[in-house]
Amino acid sequence: MKTRIMNKDLSMEVLRDGLTARDVLTNKVNSGGRDDKDDAFFVCDLGDVVNKYKKWVSCLPVWSLSTLSSATTAPMSYRYWPTWGLASTVLARLTEVQKVLNLGVGPDRIVYANPCKQTSHIRYAKKNEVNLMTFDNEDELHKIKNYFPDACLLLRILPPAAEAQCQLGMKFGCHPSQAPKLLEVAAQLDLNVVGVSFHVGSGCLEASAFARGVESAKRIFNIADQYGFDFDMLDIGGGFPGQESAAISFDEIVADLGPALDEHFPPGSGVRIIAEPGRFFVASAFTVAVNIVAKRMVARDIQEFKDDEAEDAVMNSVAPSLCEEPAFMYYVNDGVYGSFNCLLYDHAAVTPTLMRDVDKEEPLFSTSVWGPTCDGLDRIMEHCLLPELQVGDWILFEDMGAYTMAAASTFNGFGKPSCYYVADANMWGSNNHAFIQSAGSAHRHVKDSAITLPAMKRGLCALERLGITQIPSVAVPEV
Length: 479
Ligand SMILES: Cc1ncc(COP(=O)(O)O)c(C=O)c1O
What we know:
One of its GO terms (molecular function) is ornithine decarboxylase activity. This protein is α/β, with parallel strands linked by helices. About 30% of the residues lie in helices and about 20% in strands.
């Protein structure tokens, strides 16, 4: 049994009696409850987002969490963040500031985390009392002096080099050796620098990078008073993995990061620690289902000819028989100009899953999967092995929550997939008591791991200081 919660723009299904997100997806594929029967669509399991939140607050001792609205534009997935006490990171756009302010997030809980800001946006931040912002260069300091001299500033530094899915260091962050000069200029301009921020790179591939970032930040804290600053904020950024298949796990990061924070910024230090996880919260919550709209059988071997040889082979009818060596090209109704832009922008790798069981004896064929637009670039998978599929079959791609629909376009007139939200009744409707208890038991669970006691205490404290008073209720407020 499921309860459908609706308002004019959004609906969410509360799942009961063991019904799962996958069941909902299957029902929708079988066209139960969908008008646009063969359009691609997302299912978002909001219970997964709640679980991530529980995991975070029970493992990491942060004073406040910022969540990146750019990682997903799916409204329901960040709608409750203010309820949970999460602030919101604001990146490039004015509209993102507006969006989170409209959600009821106090301006004092927003980090304007773009170190290179448009001046009108700085003015907007001032007007709306969004006081906390980052900088990483001297010109930015002059801009801030002109347009928002009372702002509280975080110096964004380059963390020590680390492998990451998306490197950010080539664009943002000053080398720590430049920090003294920037602090000197900030002091001359009488600006208020309150701390340090860093981002190890999105989808970081080295668990130890976070702890090394903390050490690097600490060195800047150590020299701040020479310039008359009394730092009290550390922003450890994002970069945390969002899915099980990631190269490193959140637990591995915590095992390094927890002790590093304890050592360099212990609870009594008076330093508020904030973080900006983006993909961590949303990546695994979303699955996209795409429909095969067209299919082409090609000779597998012909793809191994050089272009001109292939053409000659076809012209002279010497191409291998399609029947002997078939490969399949499937054209589906979402692609790299849509949700799969993550292949280009996020350097993501995606894995297809079929809706049906595959018999062990069933032959597998060389397969490529293509998006719907007229562009040859629009290819989701160059090669994978799949059983033969038919037009009208569905292919699922899991872990599609981060940096997917957020950057999707409507190129060639193809619309963006709709998103259906579901959440398990126990997860979504549980009361605060149960939530705190479960977060508490998670604490007990991690006690045996490498997380040190002060860090755990601070984590518990974070729950109270985040002012969590209720788990989101099932009533969906107006947009
Ligand atoms: C300033 C800033 N904060 C946070 C994030 C979120 O990073 P992630 O999704 O890797 O956690 C990003 C991503 O680009 C960012 O640029």
